[in-house]
Every structure is written in C-alpha cells, then in structure tokens.
Amino acid sequence: MKPRARKTWLLLHVITSVGWLGVTIGMLVLALAAFDEPQLYQAMELLGDLVVLPLALGALITGVVLSLGTKWGLVKHKWVLVKFALTVVAVVATTFSLRSGLHEAADGAVGTAGGDVLAAACVSLTLYTVNTVLSVFKPWGRTRWG
Predict the structure, then answer these.
(1) What pTM did the predictor assign?
(2) Domain chopping of the chain, boundaries
(3) What is the CATH number of domain 3-137?
(4) 105 with 41: CB under 8 angstroms?
(5) What integer is the mean pLDDT of 49-60?
(6) Which of 20, 80, 90, 125 has the largest count of CB atoms under 10 Å?
C-alpha cells in the first residue's frame, strides 16, 4: 500500500475506532442514568442504530484493509489476529445483542433490559480498551503463519 493510501486508511481507522470507543463511553453513562430516567433508552436506541453500528462496521472494515495492506498482515502477528477476533465479536454482539436490548428498553420493556444494556456497555468498553492497548504495545510476536 502506498504511503498516502496507508495514511488515509489509518486515519479512517482511528476516527471510526475512537468514535466507537467514545460513543460506548456515552452509552455507559446513559445506561447508568437510565435507571432513574427510562426515557433515555430512546436516545440510546438512536445511538445504537445510527452511530454505533456504522462506526463498528467502519472500524472492522478499515482494520482489515490496513492489516492486509501493511506489513502487519491479518494473520502474521498475534496481536493483530486477537484484535481482529475481538472486533468481530464486538460487531456481532452489537448487531444482535446490544441493539435488540436497546429496542426492548426503548419500547418500555425495561425489566432486565436495563441491566443487560449496562453489562453490554461495560463489556464493549473493555473490548475496545484491550484493542487499544494491543494497538499501542503490539505484544506476543508472530503467529506460525507469519
């Protein structure tokens, strides 16, 4: 990948990844506040549908493009492979679990949905923090395919 293209993809990856992390922190704050103000689940539903999912998919796609177009590769280094796996898990969980919980809570079926949404935000934040640490420290060396 040429330097200009690599920098463009890297910029897009950082923007989507940081955006995903930031929205997740906001969702965590809203999930805590929603125990007292259930109408906040409607705002969280909008964020989940219109912001979180596009950022998640953007981070996944730009990460794959970067890994395939740079020396790191998708399966050459353990940290890249772990980061890819965690991102796929997060995208799938966001798509099928978090969003459905947000829809239930926004429709008034708060019940256990509030705790589920809070737990999902905590798990998501943990995954994104681990991914950030992996990106900075690049631990573990090469895989056997590297």
Answers:
(1) 0.91
(2) 3-137
(3) 1.20.120
(4) yes
(5) 95
(6) 20
